[in-house]
């Protein structure tokens, strides 16, 4: 008995049955799964440390802000009575002594932050622009400019504290004894001059960071732009205003935000310079929260102030990012409209 098989006609598709051992589709290799999971595995230790060092204390601090946590409940803070929003209302009651002191500290911190960030950016940008062109000794000057940023904070601030001493400090020796600019030696670590002393130290150790960031941003500006502007008759200030500053806008947006957050939260500088009790003129909000928590032993009120500070910084950061993103999109949209019109 003979069997015949029908051959496929031209244009017809033949469907064959696959054997049980034949794979029906591409199978994901185990090595690919390992490669995908490897980055998450490498990030796991950092995520765990971030959780333990930042997130867990932050959650505990938020819980503490709703409790009447004083020195009587330090042994077991979980047994402290629940007060709800009383710590927050007490902190924002500006007619009461606690709220009035917090408001004063907040205003001092705002003024200090604006001046410090502005001066750091101005000095750092000016130094970076001056160091842009190559000349003999530029590398040495760059290294010298970065010394304040490389020094440990405690060593630098303690040195300034000795320099600001009333009787044998270097500042009074130069201003009063050498130059004769003051009638008598000034008190820099107490009174109204403490704000100036704090600002000087903050700018001295903060402007090299701005110098470093702006100097890195200047490397991405083509030199052909300056050459073309010079051929068109543009001066140095016109080149800076028309080429350098617009090109540095993305860098400056990040730089100003980082400097703002660092300066507004700065605790090491006033604590090392003045100690636990900062003068009223230099009472930053970070040192004020420390005094409310660890000097008066009212951790509930101190935690509430910290939460309010966190909310304020989140609000300012969100508004700043929103405004800068819209400002960055506006020139791009205008250029696209002009291109479409053409």
From TrEMBL:
PROSITE patterns named in the record: ABC_TM1
Compartments where located: Cell membrane
One GO cellular component term noted in the UniProt record for this chain: plasma membrane
Domain of life: Bacteria
Stretches assigned to coiled coil: none
CDD domains: TM_PBP2
GO biological process terms, semicolon-separated: transmembrane transport
InterPro entries hit by this protein: ABC_transporter_permease, MetI-like, MetI-like_sf
Transmembrane segments: 37-66, 106-131, 143-163, 195-218, 247-264, 299-323
Principal location: membrane
Membrane topology value: Multi-pass membrane protein
Residue ranges, annotated region (Disordered): 1-30
Domain ABC transmembrane type-1, first and last residues per copy: 106-320
Pfam families xref list: BPD_transp_1 (PF00528)
Family, per entry: Belongs to the binding-protein-dependent transport system permease family.
Protein's name according to its UniProt entry: Transmembrane sugar transport protein
Species of provenance: Streptomyces lividans 1326
